[in-house]
Amino acid sequence: MPVAPSEETESLCGRPLGLAFHRNSGDLYIADAYKGLMRVGPDGGESEVLATGVDGVPFNFVNGIEVDQATGDVYFTDSSLTYPRRFNTEIMMNADATVRLLKYDAGTKQVTVLKDGLPYPNGVAVSHDTTYVVVAHTVPCQTHKYYLQGQKAGQYELMADLPGYPDNVRPDGKGGYWVALNQEKGHSSGEALRIPKTAKAEAEAQTNRALVGVRLDGHGVEVEELTAAKGVTLSEVTERNGTLWLGSVELDYIGLVA
User: Facing residues of 126 across strands?
Assistant: First the structure.
């Protein structure tokens, strides 16, 4: 069994947890748990560190990331000011709520805090109309909206209570969002199976399967579920042209569901 790296080694090597392309420029933005917000240009090469802190407070656990394709601005989360990535379970066990939702302005090259004092925010997604961002909270198993424009600008409101512990959240291309679940509520952490919400009762008979993802509409209503063999956990569900691309921090392959 491989030995887990020490905290010093892990922080030295870094842990890239989130990736997001800006399609117009070809830039790849990276959320590294220890190195901060980074970028690699369209020609590849060595990454550039864009930011390691904000308002005099260093980042401690940079996690989810998303790029506004219209403006190039980057939204990302710093999942705890108390615990580093290596001790992420302590965030849940101790109900840590020191987290920040952040924005990197592509024009000014400055980072600002949009919201702080949050409980374990993880993935983030920009809405299809760019009026708000969706933030997945691993604990307490919820998604929230932070409004960027309009009468609600600056407000943070509950979008949905989730049936499991979310990781990343991604737009589904239909005005809704896929939320990957690292673990189903009430269950311990194969082939994935898409289940329409209307067929949920039939799916419950599949006792050897676990819920690993849900699709929400723009109002936070669950409209589809994704299940897999028990023991499988997901960190990413991305839909492209009707195909789901699945990622997991615990698996050594990428899954596809057509």
Answer: 133
Alpha-carbon distance of 247 to 250, in angstroms, equals 9
Phi, psi (degrees; rounded to nearest 5) at 198:
-70, -15
Q: What contacts 253, CB < 8 A, 6 or more positions away?
A: none
Which residue is listed with tokens 């101790």? 94
Distances (CA, A) of 187 to 72, 122, 211, 233: 39, 20, 9, 11
Burial readout 126-139 (b: 16 or more C-beta within 10 A, e: otherwise): bbeeeebbbbbbbb
The whole-angstrom separation of Cα 164 and Cα 250 is: 17
Model confidence pLDDT, tens digit, residues 153-205 = 999 999 999 999 999 999 999 999 999 999 998 744 445 666 566 555 555 54
Question: CA nearest 38: which of 74, 71, 92?
Answer: 74
DSSP bridge partners of 51: 37
- For residue 178, the surrounding DSSP H or E stretch is strand 177-184
- Residue 194: what pLDDT? 62
Number of H helices, E strands in the chain: 3, 22
pTM: 0.88
